[in-house]
Design brief:
The longest helix has 24 residues, at 163-186. The protein has 8 helices and 7 strands, in the order βαβαααβαβαββαβα. The strands form 2 sheets. It has a 5-stranded parallel β-sheet with strand order 2-3-1-4-7, with helices on both faces. A two-stranded antiparallel ribbon has the order 5-6. Helix content is 46%, strand content 13%. The protein is α/β, with parallel strands linked by helices.
Length: 226
């Protein structure tokens, strides 16, 4: 990949961002940067920003913009010579503006998934808290029910993945994401994809990236039937 390429992916909880991000990273050689990973890493390393993050995470609160930018921007500066895909950052307009001051994104992918699909996915979602690994009983179950594949430690279900909390989470996501989506739309770099099945959305994202990255014909860019 001769030219640097920086992208971000947005979508509500349960939209399949993680799955699609991994496919993009594997197919196109972009470094996958998950804000959740950086949060856990900062907390584990007891960095100044990590200690600050922990105070919010332990109380079940959203990490404020100024803390997220303090955590994320130095890491992105270290990767200034790399091509990457961001997942989970920026989430708010303030975060997007702070990122813009560091570098310009080439592409933003926004996933639009119906509420009923999100509800079904999240009711089946179980997480390994220490690593952030996500399992879905419907299409990506653990090898042993209730246990992480790598460590054998117990999996948990987040309270906010339960149906009664989901509507509030989605409402919050839409309110916060709209100005970010509008910003990237105005910059001409936003591409939205709608559907209920990640495997049906993926060929369209794959095709877009093949075009954007001017990737020569390969297995990743062969025509696929959605």
């Amino acid at each position: 990949m001769a030219k640097l390429f920086r992208a971000a992916i947005m979508g509500p909880p349960g939209s399949g961002k993680g799955t699609i991000s991994q496919r993009i990273a594997e197919s196109f050689g972009l470094q996958y940067l998950s804000s959740g990973h950086f949060l856990r890493e900062g907390i584990a390393a007891n960095t100044e920003a990590g200690v600050e993050v922990r105070t919010f995470v332990e109380r079940g609160m959203l990490v404020p913009d100024h803390v997220m930018t303090r955590l994320m921007l130095p890491r992105l500066e270290q990767l200034i010579g790399h091509s990457w895909l961001l997942d989970g950052f920026p989430r708010t307009l303030m975060q997007a503006q702070a990122l813009n001051n560091l570098c310009q994104l080439d592409l933003v992918i926004s996933l639009n998934i119906p509420y009923e699909t999100l509800r079904e996915r999240l009711s089946d979602r179980w997480i390994h808290p220490a690593s952030g690994r996500v399992y879905n009983l419907g299409f990506n179950p653990p090898l042993v029910q209730g246990k992480d594949d790598i460590t054998g430690e117990p999996l948990i279900q987040h309270d906010d993945d339960k149906p009664e909390a989901l509507m509030a989470r989605l409402r919050h996501y839409k309110d916060v994401a709209k100005p970010v989506i509008d910003l990237y739309k105005s910059q001409g770099i936003l591409h939205s994809f709608s559907g209920t099945d990640t495997d049906r959305i993926w060929p369209y994202i794959n095709s877009l990236l093949c075009t954007k990255l001017d990737t020569p014909p390969s297995d990743a860019c062969q025509p696929q039937t959605p």
